[in-house]
Amino acid sequence: MASEIGHRSFAPPKASLRLKTWRVCNAVMAVFTGICAVLQHNDPDPELWMPLYGLASLLCLAIATSPTFQGSIWWRVLVVLEMVYCLAIATYTIMYISEETRAIPHGPNPLHYEESREILGILVVMFWLAGCLFYIPERLDESTSRQRETLVIILICSLSLLPLILWLICMVGVFSDSISYCRHMCSGNKG
């Protein structure tokens, strides 16, 4: 009985750390994409961007509150639909940018255009949701090495914090003018 209790107390912390980390990272992404959705209200075309970030936020929030949603067929269908929507918006945006910069022979840095930065936001959403489709902590078995698991946790944490950190760097006055990507972010001016 004691060995059984000892075994039970050893196995759950490993799985629970993995699961807690996964839930926290999804909560961070839910907050990030939620903020992005709210900030789109003064965009020229909020009807395109608010649903994109809003649904991503809800999908991440679902995992953060109850990771069992991740195995649900409905959750997975919503993720696939969100990714198809992201591809459609990315295609539209790339076509728009190519039209805008066609007349300029060696045009300015494409990241000076708001639409180019929006494509980066789409990529963040798509990569994170693709990761959510394929990484399900409960499905990892006990044979997963501790080093591999640690690497996965570090990668997940980094990917969830990176967009937020980069965004905050661009919002700090010192960097907003010195980094070309950030140059026109706050003012909303193009090119």
What's the arrangement of secondary structure elements?
Layout: H1 2-39, H2 46-65, H3 73-101, H4 114-134, H5 146-171, H6 173-176
Largest sheet: none
How far apart are the first and last residues' alpha carbons, in Å?
70 Å
Q: How many helices does DSSP assign?
A: 6
- The gross shape turns out to be globular
Task: Explain the overall architecture.
The protein is 72% helix and 0% strand. With 191 residues, the protein is mainly alpha-helical. Helix 1 (2-39) packs antiparallel against helix 2 (46-65), helix 2 (46-65) packs antiparallel against helix 3 (73-101) and helix 3 runs antiparallel to helix 4 (114-134). The longest helix has 38 residues, at 2-39. The radius of gyration is 20 Å and the shape is globular. 19% of the residues are buried.
Offer a few descriptive terms:
single chain, mainly alpha, globular, disordered N terminus
What is this entry, summarized?
This protein has 191 residues and is mostly helical. The chain has six helices and no strands.
